[in-house]
Specification:
Elements (H helix, E strand, L loop, with lengths): L8 H7 L25 H9 L14 H13 L4 E5 L2 H12 L5 E5 L4 H13 L3 E5 L4 H7 L4 E7 L11 H10 L3 E5 L17 E5 L13 E5 L1 H15 L5 H12 L1 H19 L5 E5 L9 H7 L6 E6 L2 H10 L5 E2 L9 E3 L11 H7 L5 E5 L5 H14 L1
Parallel strand pairs: 2-3, 2-4, 4-5, 5-6, 10-11
Antiparallel strand pairs: 1-7, 6-7, 8-9, 9-12, 11-12
The chain binds pyridoxal-5'-phosphate (PLP).
The site of pyridoxal-5'-phosphate has 17 residues, from helix 4 and helix 5.
Length: 395
């Protein structure tokens, strides 16, 4: 397509992937149907031999609403194709299981979301896949771990919850040097500020539960990558194992994508402003937002993207007790374990999302007893700052 004919990214979020039914509706239709009717026995036979681009067989394989969503979001992220999954973890598990086999070696960053750690360390190990974990912020560690026998590299571009930043171009170059695929979990970076494709990642996973839904309602996920892989091994695995997204979720996601940039840019600005307001507060250590100067990797984070998600972290001095007093004194910010909601949310990872990990591993990952992960919502930022300052007083 010519540069002129190409949609800008924001227009892609509103119109990308749209297909109209014979009624010519303005708003995308939700097709709540499990199956599809064939005019003749012969056409049913034909479709089972080869499914055409706008043809469907069964909603576990694909559905028009799901297809619109896949095309819109994967196109926005710069990938050829995508498969919509029932949750972010269905996407993580689906991508790994469809790409790996016994005897393969995976190199992964150590700072990962708890469930991703479980899939890598507990499930893949049971099927004879070797997993080597490295400190993702250390380029030399990647260089040493990625060897000729590496099949796949898995990482979170920005880690949950500790906001470690990975030099993605470097890791992609090293991986491609030995013919390994790079699979990026981009939940924290957000689709708006994703740089996975630009830095050379082969595949990218988005937990659409986070910023795409953005209003705490739906679970969903998307695996994006080259058409050959997505419509090949990924689709084959997903359609036969039942992890597809439900059409109603795909429809709410299509509507949510229309406002994605407005929401995420506002929330990211809020997160930066909060980091600025809290950095240096006498009751806090280590205020971190990747592109803010207080983050040790802010130069790398700023080189990779204009902003870095909608979450910041800080460490409340005085450990768990002080931290719980702070959390319990919040008036507007909610205590919960999700992030990327329109409502601001504070999480205590050490006792919730990462409770399962032994203390030693928590220490290694930087999940301290005072660590708070703060997801910045769509409220007036000054109200959120005020809520935090009064709760810090209450300690
Ligand atoms: C939330 C999250 C997931 C899992 O997504 P679900 O939609 O909750 O299944 C995976 N990876 C990361 C980094 C996440 O933050």
């Amino acid at each position: 397509m010519s540069e002129q004919g190409k949609k800008s990214r924001r227009t892609q979020l509103v119109h990308g992937g749209s297909k109209r039914s014979q009624w010519n509706e303005v708003s995308e239709a939700v097709f709540l149907t499990q199956g599809f009717v064939y005019d003749t026995a012969e056409s049913a036979e034909e479709r089972f031999i080869k499914v055409g681009d706008d043809e469907f067989i069964y909603a576990r394989y694909g559905n028009p609403t799901m297809r619109m969503f896949e095309d819109r979001l994967s196109g926005y992220l710069g990938f050829e194709d995508g498969f919509a999954c029932a949750s972010g973890m269905a996407a993580v598990n689906g991508a790994l299981m469809s790409l790996l086999k016994a005897g393969d070696k995976v190199v992964a960053s150590r700072a990962l979301f708890g469930s991703c750690l479980y899939v890598l360390e507990d499930i893949l190990a049971r099927f004879g896949v070797t997993v080597v974990m490295v400190d993702g912020t250390d380029n030399a560690a990647w260089d040493a771990a990625i060897t000729e026998d590496t099949t796949l590299v898995f990482l979170e571009s920005i880690s949950n919850p500790t906001l470690e930043v990975i030099d993605l171009k470097h890791v992609c170059n090293v991986a491609h040097g030995v013919g390994a695929l790079v699979l990026v979990d981009d939940a924290m970076a957000t689709p708006v500020f994703s740089y996975a494709k630009d830095c050379g990642a082969d595949l990218c996973i988005i937990s659409t539960t986070k910023h795409v839904d953005g209003q705490g309602r739906m679970l969903g996920g998307l695996i994006c990558g080259p058409k050959e892989i997505i419509r090949g091994s990924v689709e084959a695995y997903m359609k036969h194992t039942g992890g597809a997204m439900n059409p109603f979720t795909a429809w709410t996601h299509l509507k949510a994508l229309e406002t994605l940039e407005l929401r995420v840019r506002t929330q990211a600005k809020g997160a930066f402003k909060l980091a600025e307001a809290l950095d240096g507060h006498p009751k806090l250590n280590a205020v971190r937002y990747p592109t803010h100067k207080a983050h040790p990797q802010h130069a790398l984070a700023s080189a990779q993207s204009e902003a870095a998600g909608t979450v910041l972290t800080f460490d409340v001095k005085g450990g768990k007790d002080a931290c719980f007093r702070f959390l319990n004194a919040l008036n507007i910010i909610l205590i919960s374990n999700n992030f990327a909601d329109a409502k601001s949310i504070a999480t205590h990872p050490a006792t919730t999302t990462h409770q399962r990990l032994p203390d030693e591993q928590k220490g290694m990952l930087g999940i301290t007893p005072g660590l708070v992960r703060l997801s910045v919502g769509l409220e007036e930022t000054d109200d959120i700052i005020g809520d935090i300052l009064q709760a810090l007083e209450a300690i």
